[in-house]
Amino acid sequence: MNIFEMDNTYVANTYGRFPIEIVSGKGAMVVDSNGKEYVDMGSGIAVNTFGIADDEWVKAVTEQLNTLQHMSNLYYTRPCAQLAKLLCEKTGMKKVFFGNSGAEANECAIKVARKYAMQTKGSDYYTILTLKNSFHGRTLTTLAATGQDVFHSQFLPLTEGFVYAEANNIDDVKSKVAEHKIAAIMFETVQGEGGVLPLDEQFVKEMKQIADENDILLIVDEVQTGNGRTGKLYGYMHYGITPDLFTTAKGLGGGLPIGACVMSEKVQNVLQSSDHGSTFGGNPVACAGAINVISRLTDEFLAEVQAKSDMVFERLSKADGVISVSGKGLMIGIETKKDASAVITECRENGVLVIKAKNKVRLLPPLSITWEQLRYAVDVIVAACAD
Ligand SMILES: *Cc1c(COP(=O)(O)O)cnc(C)c1O
Asked: How many A from CA of 320 to the centre of ligand 1?
């Protein structure tokens, strides 16, 4: 059996995989089992913030691995505390709960919102308002939060208490808030899986105002948009608002599983001893990776992410066969005249790995991709988009 047959036989059928096996890499380059090299414009879906086997990151992680790989949350460990401090200092937030994934981070935020609303308004205020076309995860509760029926229909009943408003339609948000007993409003600043669609600034500001006026918590899902991906440390920082909670995962660990629910002063003490937990949460190795990632996302580094983004937008938006380009920073969606899957295949054959979001070609390169690698990738993408 070759690896494709073995995987297809023994691994659950939940993923449609591209027909290559990735064996290794360095930075933004990956190598398949035939020795062919590619520029990786997906970075494990916005996970490998500094690409593959980045020297500094590997050093930080392996030093921790050789010291203490795991300890239960019954004891104090240094990386967990240091990462929480770093996240709070960089964002002005007050406390962090660590889990292992985006879905788990969102579950925590939902629990905080429900407990807060129960304490402040009563136990019938449990409904969370999310946006249509959003994506918040695959657990039964975060699926319920996800405003896309296609993900729901085969897994009913989902967790109750979610309603959906149309993105960028403030009147719809207002009417849902009037109609339901809302505990929190939760959204992505750029809908990633939904097609790399940034929310309008005015809409986000008005949601913040409605939330404040009604003592509704504002939760920003920064699982994909976080950790420098959009050219700022967190996506909400583009919008001049501060959420009551934000969640993040994907790029936080730079390639290790970690998720975080980050809480403002208002909700910092909502969760108390034994209200929530996670065996692997705050794992020292994952936290050591995340400390390395977050401490390297300086203003100077983020300005370079933005400059790279500007170059990609500039080149792609006037390219043949490109209908539109959307997104922020190095989270970019391309609407193409050709079928996106055909463009993706052509790019792969020419040494560039790009992925899909809805009907768009999606780019999520490592933030540390070199200008030369990025220019090469854009050349290949531009050529693939042309009729
Ligand atoms: C990927 C993603 C999630 C789910 O994260 P997992 O780590 O796969 O659980 C949640 N929200 C957003 C916005 C995402 O992009």
From this structure: 32
